[in-house]
Amino acid sequence: MYEERSNDSFIDMGKADRSVWLMKCSVVVAKSWKNQEDSSSDSLPVAKVVFSLDPLKPDEPQFTMEMVGSETESIPKSYTLNMFKDFVPMSVFSETSQALAMEGKVEHKFDMKPHAENIEEYGRLCRERTNKSMIKNRQIQVIDNDRGVHMRPMPGMIGLISSNPKVLLYMDKKKPMPVKQSEVKRTRRDRGELEDIMFKLLERQPNWTLKQLVQETDQPAQFLKEILNELCVYNKRGANQGTYELKPEYKKYAEDTADE
Hints:
By secondary structure, this protein is of the alpha+beta class.
């Protein structure tokens, strides 16, 4: 079945009623799956999802996931899948050079976290990624022509000759207007890298306001909120009102690590 689009092409709606699941996974899991896909020409299973149902609580199903494959040796194997009950209706599409197809409707949406017994290993991986992201490879470049031949006045500049004829100085006609902080366009970091930085900051100080974290990370506030909603709880009252702190499962791991 096809439906016509506005540009005279068609959408394949043959799988429109198929139910699909949407899961938000961590960077290490996504990289592991991609490595398996790149290293094998066959479409092999990358994980196994286990569905458990308590007869006394039929409305509270439990989902877990077990990683499979040779690319998973260095990452946690077991994860808990938290299912969202309320989310915006979504559909999945695929596009090729020939056609655009609807692959199905999202029936369930999940996020994932390591099991309690794997949280220490997962924390170690996060710290390793954080340390790697903090390393800045600086390079020194030698300029062959050091006589200032390539120094040319830019528009709006006045060239002044100093007592040394080989040196050319420049002066602004007008001082540039200071750029307001709100007008600075911040570039998003890699999501996994930003998560690692957030763990590091929250280990250093348990409570942060959004404004403080924006200043510390130099990230867009809206993007930062998405990460905070996954890792933290927001204090709406009490002594720490208006601040974020780690969710209990992450906080417990941080405390256990500190005791050791």
